[in-house]
Amino acid sequence: MDIARPSNAKKKRIRQIIYSAVLLLAVGLVSFGLSRLKPAAPTVERAVVWPDTVKRGPMVRQVRGLGTLTPEDIRWIPATTQGRVEKIILRPGTAVKAGDVVLELSNPQLEQQLQDAQLKLQATEAGLENIKVQLNNDLLQQRASSANIEADYNKAKMQAQMNEELAKDQLVSALVLKQSQVDADSLGVRNQISKDQLASKADSMRAQIAVQQSLVDQARALLRLTQQQRDELKVRAGLDGMLQLVPVEVGQQVAPGANLARVANPSRLKAEIKIAETQAKDIQL
Question: Which of 41, 92, 136, 256 has the smallest count of CB within 10 Å of its CB?
């Protein structure tokens, strides 16, 4: 009896399946093994390293870069008031002192303000002198009136005392004595009131003069400020050194705060070095 054998194609398919399974298993094992390995140390050329024993201590890292020497003291000179550039006296590259005038500005409005401030100060000073004269005259009149009242009071008091002595000898009537005493008491009250008014007048006089004096002080301060602003139209270096830059031209209008010149002190310098970005991370100030 004949037995049927499997075809060669079927056997071949089974072998392919087995081989594929073995291959997948091998790839998985290799991948797992590689994932468990630690990364290899980076390689460097031997010429760029110095083999030695590791020691604790400072490690100096040198970097190189291009740079320039620049002054430590650099001052921009700003405009303190609005104006027009009238004259440029010094040019960049000139050695200057702090008080040297670099350029001049003009401001007609500021000149008018200066004249107004001068007139205002003169008016307030004249007002102060006038009120002093008036108050002094009033005070003198008050003193004269007070002196007259005091003299009348002293006379009345003496008359009352004399009538009192005469009344003891019955040389004057009781009515005359009483009248003289009433007159003396009345003038005594008026005398005290006059003295109080005189003291109050003096206090009032000092207060009024103080008010007028404050107006004079305000006018004087305004004039001083305006004069300072006018003087600052002459722009000075403000620093001993070298005039580096004058970024304005004659006829140019400038606003307060605008930079008019730059002065530097070349005796104190510092190095400004440009370091590559790749090396900048290794620098610590």
Answer: 41
Domain count of the chain?
2
Residue 182: give the domain boundaries. Answer: 108-232
At residue 43, the 3 state secondary structure works out as coil
Q: Are 131 and 179 in the same domain? A: yes
Q: Is 96:246 a contact under the CB 8 Å cutoff?
A: no
Q: Return the closest-CA partner of residue 214 out of 137, 127, 117.
A: 127
With respect to residue 256, please indicate whether it lies within any of the assigned structural domains: yes
pTM: 0.58
Supply 16's token pair: 């392919």
CA distances in angstroms from 187 to 140, 145, 152, 179, listed in the order given:
21, 13, 7, 12
Judge whether 1 lies within some domain: no
Report the distance separating Cα 182 and Cα 165, nearest Å: 16
Q: Are 101 and 77 in contact (CB under 8 A)?
A: no
Contact call for residues 271 and 69 (beta carbons, < 8 A): yes
Q: Distance between CA atoms of 235 and 63, rounded to whole angstroms?
A: 44
Residue type at position 280:
A
What is the β-pairing status of strands 259-274 and 66-78? antiparallel
Supply the CATH number for residue 165's domain.
1.10.287
For tokens 């009071």, name the residue.
153
Res. 40: pLDDT tops 60: no
pLDDT digits (tens, 9 = 90+) for 69-111: 778 788 999 999 999 999 999 999 999 999 999 999 999 999 9
